[in-house]
Amino acid sequence: MNQNIIFYGNEEILSSLFKKGSETDIRYYNYKIAGNEVTFLFPFKFPERIQPLVNACSVANKAVVAVNQLDRSVGEFILSLDYYEIKSLGFIGEENVFNQMKKLVAPLGIDIFHMSGKYEDFEKFVSSGTPSPRKSTIVVIDQSFPVRGTGTVSLGFVLGGQIRKHMVMKSYPSGKSVDIKNIQVMDVDVDTAEPFTRVGIAYRNTELEDVPKGSILYDSDSMSSAETIRLTVRRNPAVNVTPNIGDKVQLNFLFNNINAEISDISDQIYLLDLDRKAPVLDVPYSITNLNSTPRLLGAGKPAD
Fold first, then answer.
1. pTM greater than 0.90 (yes/no)
2. Of 158, 191, 218, which residue sits at a domain end?
3. What distances in angstroms separate CA 114 from CA 65, 84, 188, one per listed residue?
4. CATH number, position 263
5. What is the mean pLDDT of each run of 10 residues along the chain (304 residues)?
């Protein structure tokens, strides 16, 4: 199965083994490993900014970390894996640091693999188990731009279902319908694209403002959105920062980072008033406070 792997640490390992693709506040590396289309997401603006980290985690299904010591940034990285339900972690580093990391992630239910940083180890890691994709068809857009002679083109990730040429989808937040004219995977034209695949999409008669960064393409009119969202929030017990009613925070999901205010807390149920409407999806939403340490306060899914 194709995979999206978030990577943190020594970027030279990626650049020496894999093909560098596009770049925003995340660098993308692409390669075909063990028959799978694999995209590595390197949020190089982290730890300075938390958004690239949570954006990358929101579309990843595995992670690799390459560090020589555990520090606050590594802790925030591991916290993000926990909140975004990423349960498979490759570690590149010394044996003693690996043992420390193993103790750190064991209570989180994260499976950890010691890797050398050689291609063969990445091949084994990619071949290990992969979580099941979402059933509903969703594409998350991280870049859109005009191409002369083609029109609007987007880069993004298929997170569930299957997309195909000539498919008409709805776009959040614009609300516009978009008609897929062409699909590429690793610069090769394809008729369809499966879950956990990074894709390039060209459209018919679609403008840039119809599919900006953070757009979510979906195949159903049933996706609801709201300016207030209720989440069942899980907080890591190691985090000492306690959110309070009235706190100004950000709600992070699928390359969206929306300013919000906590208007109510009842047990694990948090009510957030948002600056703009957000879709109500069965995906993890994280809550961040840019002025706290750590910045990740918790995460959860919409309450019933």
1. yes
2. 218
3. 10, 22, 33
4. 2.40.30.10
5. 95 95 94 92 97 97 97 96 96 97 96 96 89 83 95 95 94 95 94 95 96 92 88 91 95 97 95 96 95 94 89
